[in-house]
Specification:
- It is built from 11 helices and 13 strands.
- The protein is α/β, with parallel strands linked by helices and 352 residues long.
- Helix 1 crosses helix 10.
- The longest helix has 22 residues.
- The protein is elongated and about 70 Å long.
- The model has no long low-confidence stretch (mean pLDDT 97).
- It binds 6-O-phosphono-beta-D-fructofuranose.
Amino acid sequence: MKIGICTGGGDCPGLNAAIKAIVASSIQQGHEVIGIRDSLTGLLESPPRYQTLLWNHVDDILTRGGTILGTDNSGNPYSDPTKRDQRIKTTLENAKLLGLDVLIVIGGEGTQAIAALLSDAGLPVIGVPKTIDNDLPATDKTIGFDSAVDIVRESVERLQSTAESHDRIMILEVMGRDSGYIALHGGLAGGANVILIPEIQFEVSKIAAAIDLRKKRGIHYSVVVVAEGACGKGESPFYMKSADQKEVLGGVGNQLAKTLHKATGMETRVTVLGHVQRGGSPSANDRILATRFGVKAVEEALKQNFGTYLALQGSSIVALSYKGLKMGERKQISLQDDHITSAERIGIHLGR
Ligand code: F6P
């Protein structure tokens, strides 16, 4: 078989580990692999941009952050209805030109929605879920999430010692878009005192009361983790313009610092963690998860089980059909999730 791979959407740690697993297990079983450059963009151009992937290209990439194939999160090239049909046609023609028997699409929610569209149009596709946000449907974990959580965990620990020395409130704004997985899991692991997630609109007066209670217990500092998509009761999430004029989530940390300072009188500082969460070497768990996803993707490809989306459910990697899944919808934390209960039982304040 000739197996194609592409990585789409924002990068994350573990993409290269998945690429390595796909290439190594394909070559071991006598198959050929090519990598499409820069997400699906490489298949939309004439001539298509790709590279043949041999063992020596992937031998040492398990531990490397980013993606050797490049990626793109600048939007959905198939979203314009006046160009969609032509672009789907070009993609299918290019896949044929390259002799692809299957395309393994490693991507987030936007990329998986495109993969489902191309699958419906007749492209043999297998999807592998990745994103630090962990907001994809049907899967317990996505590639990249564990690494981001670990970076947040370390950052909370580092902020704790300086917060304690100065009797300050330290606010850490983390990524995650409309889902609070990174904030909740990273905050829990690092020992944050307040965690604010998009799923629960916060009330500043209640956070201030919780910080006050800590003072009454003799602890004069607090570390607050706030997800970029979190907002106060009745308010909307904060957006700002990036230098390239893209609307991006951000700013809630600084706003919260002002209101919390006013409510508590305490010195308050803000750290915006940003793309540090997306960079660097993957965690051990992400390396293993990416390897398992990669191997399973090849297994399903060889069975010709196309139109398939892989998911981690419990301890197993399962192959689901794109049909019946709502690709493009972002998963949020259920308020019944026991991470929420556990956090509150140990006195972590969730802003409500
Ligand atoms: O989806 C991953 C993510 O890192 C989000 O957590 C964040 O909001 C967004 O991408 C940032 O996008 P960009 O890299 O375009 O700034």
